[in-house]
Amino acid sequence: MTDGIALSRFQRTMITIAVMTATLLQVLDTTIANVALPHMQTSLGATRETVNWVLTSYIIASAVAIPITGWLADRIGRKTLFVAAAIGFTASSALCAAAMGIGEIVAFRVLQGIAGAFLVPLAQAILFDINPPERHASAMALFGGGVMIGPILGPVLGGWLTEYYSWRWVFLVNVPVGTVATVMLWRYLPSGKTIKRRFDLFGFALMGLALASFQLMLDRGQQLDWFASWEIWVECFVALAAAWMFVVHLVSARDPLVDPKMFRDRNFVAGMLFMLMTGAVMLAGLSLLPPLLQTLFGYSVLQSGLLTAPRGLGTLVSMLLVGRIASRVDSRTLLLVGLSLMALSLWQMSGFTLEMDRRPIILSGVIQGFGLGFVFVPLQTLAFETLGVHYRTSAASLLNLTRNVGGSIGISLVTVLLGRNFQVSHAALTSNVTATDLPPLPPSLAAPGQFVGQSALQMLESEVSRQAMMIAYLDDFWVMMLATIAAFPLLLLIRRKPKPANTAA
């Protein structure tokens, strides 16, 4: 496939609908099951620790499988791989819904993660191929809509399905939609050429080992008190050792899993770094807001999901806008505007109070979503602008892998900071509480000046804990704002593709 491959408008539309449907399904499944975990735990007779493997297994399987997308697409063709992945994702979703034990659903989630890993990078590469260069920004706006809005809609849809139906519908909903997408892909997606490439088994093993160990460390670190556990030390050592060996193998092997020439492209490297930051801020924010709204503000699961939805609306609107103006405005300017809006929204969130209503939550969410759209669309276009066409599938897989890794790092980082800042804030607040701060009993119950005993202490401790937790959340938002500001210098790495000079007739 090449830029703007000759297709009818109808065929291009059908392919776009099919690949975006598959993309949305895969992205939704990264977050849709989160809210259903308590129900799965009860239904499957699992413990709190084992039920978390429903999420962990999917993340690890997807991270390990993503890097081989480029090789598989070259070897068997994009159409064959895309259709096979869509069938595998749909079938494994049905198996997850039918699982009768925790072991079964974890095994089926591994299959779902492997199949789903190929969908997003293939969709991105195909959208580039079926559209001419002048429509790449619009295509990436559409692609970004699915990738960025999916994680936001996931908790809302998952909460509604679980509350009114069953946790099994979280997976069953994929079956009819996935079936339609598969049929459309088979019918309208043209067959591409195949390239025989030797499979770098050693490189794949090293990368898979590094990613799996790193994801395990991030996922289980908080639960095991991080480096107080030997398991975390082992996982950290294995991840670092395997990653170092992979880098050495990458630059010395004759036919490595990933062509190292890709990393000579400055825009692509800058895009990966931007994607790392974007994934961290977006997914970390999504992991913080729902528990904040539910535990400190008293909103229900469904209400908290609806309050995070405006961020998705802001993202959708800004992506549609950027898709229209990207050809007339320097993409670096759009990135600057997006980063500034994201930093502004996080600054607003660092000023949340326990007495506020829902308006600041909605406003900061819309602004942050607007900023994400201004970042994501030009970022996707710039990352591929100076890169060779034959690198697109591999580059798309690496960009999506970077976003997922960034999200995992961001979630782990804010979780650690939340716990530690809560302890620090709680200790600081407690040190300023004295016996005179306890409320006296009403005159009808006791003599003036007599203090309530254990009940008053429990009430005071509850309020101190509530205030300390709010301070910890605000500190997290402040750190996320600083991380966003730290990404501004990356704009200096990006260069525009030179326009061809006009030649005289």
From TrEMBL:
Look up keyword Repeat and say if it applies.
Answer: no
* Claim: Nucleotide-binding is one of the keywords in the record: no
Q: Which residues cross the membrane?
A: 12-33, 53-73, 80-100, 106-128, 140-161, 167-189, 201-218, 230-248, 268-289, 301-322, 334-354, 360-384, 405-422, 477-494
**Which GO MF term does the entry hold, naming one?**
transmembrane transporter activity
Start and end of every Major facilitator superfamily (MFS) profile domain?
Answer: 15-499
Q: Which domain of life is it from?
A: Bacteria
Query: Which of UniProt's keywords are assigned here?
Result: Cell membrane, Membrane, Transmembrane, Transmembrane helix, Transport
A single Gene Ontology CC annotation of this entry is: plasma membrane
Q: Which Gene3D superfamilies does the record cross-reference, listed alphabetically? A: MFS general substrate transporter like domains, Multidrug resistance protein D
Please give the InterPro entries that the UniProt record associates with this protein.
EmrB-like, MFS, MFS_dom, MFS_trans_sf, Sugar_transporter_CS
Where is the protein situated, by its record's location annotation? Cell membrane
Q: How does it sit in the membrane?
A: Multi-pass membrane protein
NCBIfam families assigned: efflux_EmrB (TIGR00711)
Give the family this protein belongs to, as stated in its UniProt record: Belongs to the major facilitator superfamily. EmrB family.
Q: Please give the PANTHER family that the UniProt record associates with this protein.
A: MAJOR FACILITATOR SUPERFAMILY MULTIDRUG TRANSPORTER MFSC
Q: What is this protein called?
A: DHA2 family efflux MFS transporter permease subunit
Supply the source organism for this entry.
Answer: Parasphingopyxis marina
